[in-house]
Amino acid sequence: MVFHSEYEAVSTVSLPIHDVVLGRAAERGDTPALVDGTGEFTLTYGQVDAFHRRVAAGLAEAGVRKGDVLALHSPNTVLFPIAFYAATRAGAAVTTVHPLATPEEFAKQLRDSSARWIVTVSPLLPAARAAAELAGGITEIFVCDQAPEGPEGQGVRSLQTFLGSTGPVPEIEVDPDEDVAALPYSSGTTGVPKGVMLTHASIATNLAQLDPVIPMGPGDRILAILPFFHIYGLTALMNAPLRQGATVVVLPRFELDTFLGAIQRHRINGLYVAPPIVLALAKHPAVADYDLSSLEYIVSAAAPLDAALAEACSARLGLPPVLQAYGMTELSPGTHVVPLSAENPPPGTVGKLLPSTEMRILSLDDPAKDAAPGEEGEVAIRGPQVMKGYLGRPDATAAMIDADGWVHTGDIGRVDADGWLYVVDRVKELIKYKGFQVAPAELEALLLTHEGVADAAVIGVTDAEGTEIPKAFVVRQAAAPGLTAEDVMAHVAARVAPYKKVRSVEFVDTVPRAASGKILRRELRDRA
Fold first, then answer.
1. pLDDT at 52
2. According to a count of CB atoms within 10 Å of the terminal CB, is the N or C end of the chain lower?
3. What pLDDT, on the 0 to 100 scale, is given for residue 9?
């Protein structure tokens, strides 16, 4: 059975993403667009429009051309959107990089994406330089802020110097349906991170699909606490509000008191968060010390949210139910949202289909068939927001998107009689640690580089706070009987970004495997 959206269909938005988002920026003039939540700095819509055009002109003068890939390596700042839209206006695709990526991880992404340019911030410049040296092929590194003085900043230009550029604003002919605007990296349902080719049209159309369910506009004040480099933050906290004329208050990272203080000071009315923040709002004693009365709604996504936790949060804050949304990087990312207008949506639902989006629930026994009505099965999605494919990986693309255009999400869900989707489990092996993707295969490969490890498997388990964490099952080498859990965790921690760290270790005699050699993770989950 094919499920269809109850909303009126939307047309594909075949325009460049910078024009879609900033097309009305100049006319909005002095309306605040981006506010530094930790300071006093504000960019108006008029400034965002003018600045991104000047930076685009500077990038073009530096040699950025259509078809290039620019790596944007930065925490949230008010200049992140300037860099993003300047790059796309200059004709580049932007691959967003986790700011805590190690140089080795960063270099892998640079090589895989064939990036020629890096934009970073001065505190991260050493990591960017190291990654560029490892990867090769980087033409120039820029910083959004001011380059460090002395040898550390030698040869590094700030994008801010481009504000004085007198060169012409590049007029690049973009094919929105084919040209890639964003190239975030995702592990998909399994495996190592892959470049997700999101076209200008797929991102822009997904924004139009969100309009009837999460309307926003001038006067709305949205807090950007989730990272812009993640597709959730890029869409919900950057593209969507700036397209509609809302004000985005930007925080570089989540620190509870800073977060709560920003809500109070800037009178934030809309929050887009992940479940760990919902947990803090529901239970942390510091919440009582702040005036959060400006809040009108909270939307949680990026990972499953427990219905009881959602209820505890909304009850404590005196808000309507915490709403959920669902999607994945490969879907630009949204497919389902609980509408802001919904009255008493059923607990635990991730929403209803967005306009122009179709869904099937595939049988777990026979994926070629649909599950019976009301039964659980794998969620499959089809719509204009589907990615173009994985960069340079046609086999992985074909495994993800079937011949009829259905994206096999790897999530297990069911649909009730009213069309609400509930995601109940994951077929895929991917671990979601606080909304960030952790690929077990990547950690397993790293564990096996330890001379004391004979075999290893990694799964996601839930800790005492309800967060999914990576747990390693490790077989010691016979010559390493003294290998400890601390040794194993330290080995991984030294080589990956903090969110990828193994946080629990159990030593076992063998790792259960099928005859094909595939790890039997379900047995490990049952054991855990």
1. 98
2. N
3. 98
What's the pLDDT score for residue 425?
72
Give me the pLDDT at residue 190, please.
65
Buried b (16+ CB within 10 A) or exposed e, 265-277: ebebbbbbbbbbb
Yes or no: say if 320 and 347 are a contact pair by the CB < 8 Å rule.
Answer: no
Count CB neighbours of 301 within 10 A.
26
**Which pair of tokens denotes residue 173?**
């002919």
Residues 101 and 106: their CA atoms lie apart, in Å, by: 6
Is residue 283 within 8 Å of residue 248, measured between CB atoms? no
Residue carrying structure tokens 């050699």: 517
> Which CATH number covers residue 62?
3.40.50.980
Give the chain's domain count: 2
Q: What's the confidence (pLDDT) of residue 514?
A: 63
Q: How far is CA 212 from the centre of its chain?
A: 22
Query: What's the CA gap between 261 and 257, in Å, rounded?
Result: 6
Secondary element (H or E) of residue 2? none
**Nearest CA among 474, 478, 479 for reference residue 446:** 474
Tens of pLDDT, residues 89-126: 999 999 999 999 999 999 999 999 999 999 999 999 99
- What is the per-residue pLDDT for 517? 63
- State the pLDDT at residue 432: 86
**CATH number of 447's domain:** 3.30.300.30
| Residues β-bridged to residue 44 | 32
Distance of CA 379 to the CA centre of its chain: 20
How many CB atoms are located within 10 Å of the residue 279 CB? Answer: 19
**Rounded to an integer, what is the distance from CA 183 to the centroid of its chain?**
11
> Of 147, 173, 199, which residue constitutes the final position of a domain?
173
Regions of the chain where pLDDT drops below 50: 516
Q: Which of 119, 85, 62 has its CA nearest to residue 15? A: 85
pLDDT at residue 16 in the model: 98
The pLDDT value recorded for residue 515 is 56
111: number of Cβ within 10 Å: 14
Predicted local distance difference test score (pLDDT) of residue 477: 92
For residue 426, tell me if it sits in a domain. Answer: no
> What pLDDT is attached to residue 366?
85
Yes or no: say if 93 and 183 are a contact pair by the CB < 8 Å rule.
yes
**What pLDDT does residue 298 have?**
98
Q: Which of 108, 143, 173 is the last residue of a domain?
A: 173
Strands 407-415 and 421-426: antiparallel
Q: Six-digit token pair at 243?
A: 């397209």
Report the pLDDT value the prediction gives residue 106, as an integer from 0 to 100: 98
* Residue 268 DSSP symbol: -
Question: CA 472, CA 445: separation in Å to the nearest integer?
Answer: 12
Q: Which domain holds residue 491?
A: 431-527
Q: What is the DSSP string of 153-205?
A: GTT-EEGGGGGG--SPPP-----TTTSEEE--EE-TTSSS-EEEEEEHHHHHH
